[in-house]
Protein backbone atom coordinates (compact mmCIF):
# COMPACT_ATOMS: atom_id res chain seq x y z
CA UNK A 1 0.00 0.00 0.00
CA UNK A 2 1.26 3.43 -0.90
CA UNK A 3 1.16 6.27 1.64
CA UNK A 4 0.91 9.88 0.66
CA UNK A 5 2.90 12.50 2.52
CA UNK A 6 1.08 15.70 3.23
CA UNK A 7 3.41 18.68 2.98
CA UNK A 8 2.78 21.85 4.92
CA UNK A 9 3.11 24.64 2.43
CA UNK A 10 2.79 27.62 4.77
CA UNK A 11 0.46 29.23 7.24
CA UNK A 12 -3.23 28.50 7.29
CA UNK A 13 -5.72 31.31 7.19
CA UNK A 14 -6.51 30.85 10.90
CA UNK A 15 -2.84 31.07 11.85
CA UNK A 16 -2.46 34.28 9.85
CA UNK A 17 -5.56 35.80 11.46
CA UNK A 18 -4.28 34.96 14.94
CA UNK A 19 -0.91 36.57 14.15
CA UNK A 20 -2.64 39.72 12.84
CA UNK A 21 -4.84 39.96 15.95
CA UNK A 22 -1.80 39.62 18.22
CA UNK A 23 0.05 42.32 16.26
CA UNK A 24 -3.00 44.59 16.51
CA UNK A 25 -3.19 44.18 20.27
CA UNK A 26 0.52 44.92 20.65
CA UNK A 27 0.22 48.01 18.46
CA UNK A 28 -2.80 49.24 20.42
CA UNK A 29 -0.73 49.14 23.60
CA UNK A 30 2.64 50.28 22.23
CA UNK A 31 1.65 53.28 20.10
CA UNK A 32 -0.04 55.35 22.86
CA UNK A 33 2.86 54.60 25.21
CA UNK A 34 5.34 55.73 22.57
CA UNK A 35 3.38 58.92 21.88
CA UNK A 36 3.31 59.71 25.60
CA UNK A 37 7.08 59.30 25.82
CA UNK A 38 7.57 61.59 22.82
CA UNK A 39 5.36 64.30 24.40
CA UNK A 40 7.29 64.09 27.68
CA UNK A 41 10.60 64.30 25.84
CA UNK A 42 9.47 67.39 23.94
CA UNK A 43 8.22 68.92 27.19
CA UNK A 44 11.70 68.38 28.61
CA UNK A 45 13.13 70.24 25.62
CA UNK A 46 10.75 73.13 26.34
CA UNK A 47 11.78 73.19 29.98
CA UNK A 48 15.45 73.22 29.01
CA UNK A 49 14.84 76.16 26.69
CA UNK A 50 13.07 78.06 29.49
CA UNK A 51 16.02 77.44 31.82
CA UNK A 52 18.43 78.70 29.14
CA UNK A 53 16.29 81.81 28.72
CA UNK A 54 16.38 82.27 32.51
CA UNK A 55 20.18 82.17 32.43
CA UNK A 56 20.16 84.71 29.58
CA UNK A 57 17.96 86.99 31.70
CA UNK A 58 20.32 86.73 34.66
CA UNK A 59 23.32 87.50 32.44
CA UNK A 60 21.50 90.47 30.95
CA UNK A 61 20.63 91.78 34.41
CA UNK A 62 24.25 91.54 35.56
CA UNK A 63 25.24 93.87 32.74
CA UNK A 64 22.21 96.20 32.64
CA UNK A 65 20.72 96.28 36.19
CA UNK A 66 17.34 95.25 34.77
CA UNK A 67 15.91 92.19 33.08
CA UNK A 68 15.66 92.15 29.30
CA UNK A 69 12.70 92.07 26.97
CA UNK A 70 12.24 89.47 24.25
CA UNK A 71 14.42 91.60 21.97
CA UNK A 72 17.29 91.62 24.49
CA UNK A 73 17.72 87.90 25.11
CA UNK A 74 17.98 84.86 22.87
CA UNK A 75 14.58 83.29 22.20
CA UNK A 76 15.04 79.71 20.96
CA UNK A 77 13.28 78.41 17.86
CA UNK A 78 11.15 75.32 18.33
CA UNK A 79 8.73 73.27 16.27
CA UNK A 80 6.74 72.42 19.39
CA UNK A 81 6.73 75.55 21.60
CA UNK A 82 6.36 79.30 21.23
CA UNK A 83 8.48 81.17 23.80
CA UNK A 84 7.57 84.59 25.20
CA UNK A 85 8.93 87.02 27.78
CA UNK A 86 6.47 89.10 29.82
CA UNK A 87 6.10 91.13 33.03
CA UNK A 88 9.61 92.49 32.58
CA UNK A 89 10.87 95.03 35.12
CA UNK A 90 14.08 95.71 37.00
CA UNK A 91 13.28 92.88 39.41
CA UNK A 92 10.82 90.52 37.71
CA UNK A 93 10.12 88.61 34.52
CA UNK A 94 8.00 85.69 33.38
CA UNK A 95 9.03 83.24 30.69
CA UNK A 96 6.33 81.20 28.96
CA UNK A 97 6.47 78.20 26.64
CA UNK A 98 3.17 77.60 24.85
CA UNK A 99 2.73 74.28 23.08
CA UNK A 100 2.06 74.21 19.36
CA UNK A 101 1.60 71.59 16.65
CA UNK A 102 1.45 68.02 17.98
CA UNK A 103 2.62 69.10 21.45
CA UNK A 104 -0.84 70.60 22.11
CA UNK A 105 -1.97 67.07 22.98
CA UNK A 106 0.20 67.20 26.14
CA UNK A 107 -2.88 67.60 28.33
CA UNK A 108 -2.43 69.88 31.32
CA UNK A 109 1.06 70.90 30.25
CA UNK A 110 0.41 73.03 27.17
CA UNK A 111 1.69 76.18 28.91
CA UNK A 112 4.88 76.10 30.98
CA UNK A 113 6.02 79.18 32.90
CA UNK A 114 9.15 80.14 34.78
CA UNK A 115 9.79 83.40 36.62
CA UNK A 116 12.81 85.22 38.05
CA UNK A 117 12.68 83.25 41.31
CA UNK A 118 12.54 79.91 39.43
CA UNK A 119 8.88 79.35 40.28
CA UNK A 120 7.66 76.75 37.79
CA UNK A 121 4.06 76.22 36.78
CA UNK A 122 2.18 73.98 36.43
CA UNK A 123 4.07 72.11 39.12
CA UNK A 124 3.00 68.66 37.90
CA UNK A 125 4.62 69.24 34.52
CA UNK A 126 8.12 69.99 35.77
Could you walk me through the main structural features you see in this protein, from its secondary elements to its overall organization?
It is a single chain. By secondary structure, the protein is α+β, with helices and mostly antiparallel strands. The chain has one domain. It is built from one helix and four strands, in the order αββββ. It has a four-stranded antiparallel beta sheet, covered by helices on one side. A hairpin with a 7-residue loop joins strand 1 (81-86) and strand 2 (94-99). The longest helix is centred in the N-terminal third of the chain and has 52 residues, at 13-64.
Record keyword descriptors for this entry:
126 residues; alpha+beta; four-stranded antiparallel sheet; 1 helix
Please sum up the structure shown.
The protein has one helix at residues 13-64, and strands spanning 81-86, 94-99, 111-115, 120-121. It is α+β, with helices and mostly antiparallel strands and 126 residues long.
Low-confidence stretches: none
Q: Strand percentage, roughly?
A: 15-25%
Evaluate the radius of gyration: 26 Å
Beginning-to-end CA distance, first to last residue: 79 Å
What general form does the structure show? rod-shaped
- H/E topology pattern: HEEEE
Strand order of the largest sheet: 1-2-3-4
The description of the largest β-sheet is: 4 strands, antiparallel
* Helix content class: 40-55%
Structural class: alpha+beta
Number of strands: 4
Average pLDDT, to the nearest integer?
92
Count up the helices. 1
Total domain units: 1
Amino acid sequence: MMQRCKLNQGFTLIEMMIAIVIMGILAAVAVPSYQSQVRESRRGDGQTALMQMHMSQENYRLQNVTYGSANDIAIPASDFYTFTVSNVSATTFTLTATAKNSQTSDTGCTTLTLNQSLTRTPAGCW
